[in-house]
Amino acid sequence: MVYLLGLASLPTAIIRSRTPQGATAWCIGLISFPMLALPLFLIFGRSKFYGYVEAHRLAANEISNELVQLRETVISHSADVPPGLESLFGIVASLMKSPFTRGNKVELLIDGVATYKSMLESIAGASKYILIQFYIFRDDEIGNKFADALIAQVKRGVAVYFLYDNIGSSKLSKKFVKRLSTNGVNIFAFKTSKHKSRLQINFRNHRKLVVVDGKSAHIGGLNIGDDYLGKYKKIGAWRDTHVKISGVAVLEAQLNFIIDWYWEAEKVPALDWTPEFFNGTASVAVVNTGPADETSFAGIIHLDAFNNAKKRIWIANPYFIPDEPVERALQLAVLRGVDVRCLIPGRNDNKVIHMASKIYMDRLVRAGAKFYNYGGRKRVFTHSKTFLVDDLLSSVGTTNLDNRSLHINFEAQALIVDKDFAQQMEAMFLNDFSISTEVPVNFFRRRSYWYRLTAKALNLSSPML
């Protein structure tokens, strides 16, 4: 009976899968070992998130007047298109229904101390409202520090809207949530399984965002927890990157939060949609991607950026399991003479992904790309999700280069076109490279037979990781 159910599930697996590799992996599993693969498929086999598009439409209806104002604002502040980035600007405008905007100021934030300090300063300066959203929010020292800051602002009359992922923050205590709620914080868990979509438990809302008064937004790789300050001995020093944006692009970040908020609260809070314009040189697009998209926006953006690189592609990413198009784009970039470098953890908190990634590293290193193990074998970890293309385009966000981030998770990415910011990113990368160990070309072939076999076996499941 189990084998028959496995066979009966094959058409669904083929239809649902976003990639041929994913479909192949599920089909092999359902045919070969259905007792294990079938329950996994029922839980993890969905690639399309249902109900979110309708929530987006309903939220837009509630703020239709504000949305018209927002669209007029962003169009009137559309950024000039730099040479070489015509296709990226067109793709963002087409897929996101909003262009890159000028009139923004950006601040690069390196590591937890600087990022949390900046966030808490923005929270303390709020006069109207605070929107806060995290994949992981811990009930620890820094988590309680944020909670105290939010409650203090509520007592001053500032509205606080708090959203956390139900699975990523599953260890968040009910006592902690109740404390925030009873003190006036509007708080919800983002639950992917609700209403008619109760089997959508494979999806995660991986976004990390703080918006204050519609004037500033923090986006990047850091969640809220003491581990991001390097206080977990098992992980060690934690390396991460965030960005603070001020200006017109903040309104797009605010709108993106509203859609997620509506999914749970089914109502839209009253917010300020008046833009704050800066005479800065940064053109910014805040891009939200996820499993409700008709196509893989995250993958398309990475593909276009990498395919149009002329000088360099520098990447920092902790979970490097790119899909085939992104891998091919990096290989082609190397063949064009582009300086392709990837900063990855020397020690990883996810052993399965760490091993599976060796196959991609091997192919790209032999093609001519350079990989760097951050910190060598020291007890340190890089969680940054950034890239720098040439001398102008930077990305700071939540998107990993793996199947989950590119196709399954809800993610947020700040695309920044600015020479000064790119120079700061370059300095950050150079510092990270300087304390890292370059991966030799023959690193994989030097490992034992069993190591290589394990890596290749785990790589078979990479479309599902």
Protein traits:
single chain; 465 residues; alpha/beta; Endonuclease, Chain A; two-stranded parallel sheet; 17 strands; 20% strand
Description:
The protein is of the alpha/beta class and 465 residues long. It folds into 3 domains: 2-44; 52-82 and 101-281, Endonuclease, Chain A; 297-464, Endonuclease Chain A (Endonuclease, Chain A), CATH 3.30.870.10. It is 43% helix and 20% strand. The strands form 2 sheets. It has a 15-stranded mixed beta sheet with strand order 4-3-2-5-6-8-1-9-16-15-14-10-11-12-17, sandwiched between helices. It has a two-stranded parallel sheet with strand order 7-13. Strand 3 (159-165), helix 10 and strand 4 form a beta-alpha-beta unit. Helix 3 crosses helix 4, helix 5 (52-62) packs across helix 11 and helix 14 (351-367) crosses helix 17. The protein is globular, with a radius of gyration of 22 Å.
Summed up:
This protein has 465 residues and is α/β, with parallel strands linked by helices.
Q: How would you classify the helix and strand content by structural class?
A: alpha/beta
Task: Indicate the radius of gyration in whole angstroms.
Answer: 22 Å
- Tally of helical segments: 17
Rough outline: globular
Known CATH architecture of the largest domain: 2-Layer Sandwich
Mean pLDDT: 86
Helix content: 40-55%
Query: Into which percentage range does the β-strand content fall?
Result: 15-25%
CATH level-1 class of the largest domain: Alpha Beta
Give the total of beta strands: 17
State the end-to-end distance.
28 Å
CATH fold assignment of the largest domain = Endonuclease, Chain A
Largest sheet: 15 strands, mixed
Number of domains: 3
Main sheet: strand order = 4-3-2-5-6-8-1-9-16-15-14-10-11-12-17
**Which spans have pLDDT < 50 for at least 5 consecutive residues?**
none
Q: What is the CATH superfamily label of the largest domain? A: Endonuclease Chain A
